[in-house]
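Tokens for chain A. Residues wanted.
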């Protein structure tokens, strides 16, 4: 017969074995969960409402596929605060962190990432000319590790709106950063469309946000209208342009509804929320195993009209009721 002491030892050893087995199983489960967690990092060139709307759309598009930023996926966001040098630093940091996908809002941020890595998938959001920025080979076949969503500015519709609200316009002053490839590409299209409408374009450059006010002021007395394309530098300092427009009673047109809410007279632009959602869907495709080179660039095609009636009054413009009726966004 076994002694009671022997039986007791066997029970203890059995219990320990069960506990160790349970611990091993638990550790394995945790290891699997950790391995399955995805990491998405996002960098944006600057902070302003239009970019914020694109980022919100991106988060929504990603979450719609089950990848909820900060919950089911690791999530990090950094802004370059308008500095290309800072954008390059963020790009190098993110590459070192080795996320599953890096997202870029703004051409300078996307270019910095493309220069920093040829292997980690990059998804851009809201660019106007990804081909001109040398980020993709074509819209249908991006090639390499970069793809995303693009919004081609409806410059023809924008100029038609200017002529509708300011019929006597003959010269438009465009404020932009010549260092942004996106803005340079849009300006070329603006010039082409303006020529066919008998309008002269006068350029005013701003390399930094702090230069924007002086650039806007330099156009006073030289132009009939102020205009800002999808330029992150100019939009980040929009209030300084608005003050010049108010003081000189010059109509100021923008390219996005967010700028109209801040005080620009009017805009015809793409829906930033949708542009962001398209990029979010692309990022989800990559997290599920697709390669960027196999995912065509998604193009936004929905435009909307925005009008700020309060600014129209301060800038000396009467907005016809028919234009107000067409507007999706009206600020009163």
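Reply:
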């Amino acid at each position: 017969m076994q002694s009671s002491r022997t039986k007791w030892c066997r029970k203890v050893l059995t219990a320990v074995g069960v506990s160790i087995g349970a611990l091993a199983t638990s550790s394995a489960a945790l290891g699997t969960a950790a391995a399955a967690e995805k990491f998405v990092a996002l960098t944006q060139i600057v902070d302003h409402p239009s970019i914020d709307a694109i980022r919100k759309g991106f988060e929504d598009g990603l979450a719609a596929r089950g990848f909820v930023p900060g919950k089911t996926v690791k999530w990090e966001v950094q802004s370059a605060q308008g500095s290309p040098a800072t954008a390059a630093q963020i790009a190098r940091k993110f590459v070192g962190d080795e996320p599953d996908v890096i997202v870029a809002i703004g051409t300078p941020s996307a270019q910095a990432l493309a220069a920093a890595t040829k292997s980690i998938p990059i998804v851009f959001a809201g660019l106007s000319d990804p081909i001109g920025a040398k980020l993709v080979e074509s819209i249908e076949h991006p090639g390499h590790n970069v793809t995303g969503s693009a919004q081609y500015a409806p410059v023809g519709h924008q100029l038609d709106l200017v002529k509708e609200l300011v019929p006597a316009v003959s010269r438009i002053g465009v404020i932009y950063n010549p260092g942004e490839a996106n803005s340079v590409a849009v300006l070329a299209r603006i010039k082409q469309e303006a020529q066919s409408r008998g309008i002269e374009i006068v350029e005013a450059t701003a390399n930094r946000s702090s230069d924007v006010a002086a650039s806007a002021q330099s156009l006073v007395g030289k132009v009939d209208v102020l205009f800002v394309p999808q330029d992150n530098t100019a939009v980040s300092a929009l209030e300084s342009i608005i003050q010049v427009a108010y003081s000189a009673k010059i109509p100021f047109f923008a390219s996005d509804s967010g700028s109209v809410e801040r005080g620009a007279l009017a805009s015809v632009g793409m829906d930033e929320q949708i542009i962001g959602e398209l990029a979010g869907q692309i990022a989800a495709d990559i997290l599920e195993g697709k390669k960027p080179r196999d995912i065509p660039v998604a193009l936004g095609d929905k435009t909307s009209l925005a009008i700020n009636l309060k600014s129209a009054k301060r800038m000396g413009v009467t907005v016809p009721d028919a234009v107000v009726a067409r507007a999706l966004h009206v600020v009163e």
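The CA atoms of residues 154 and 269 lie 7 Å apart. The chain has two domains: 36-152+271-302, 155-270+304-331.
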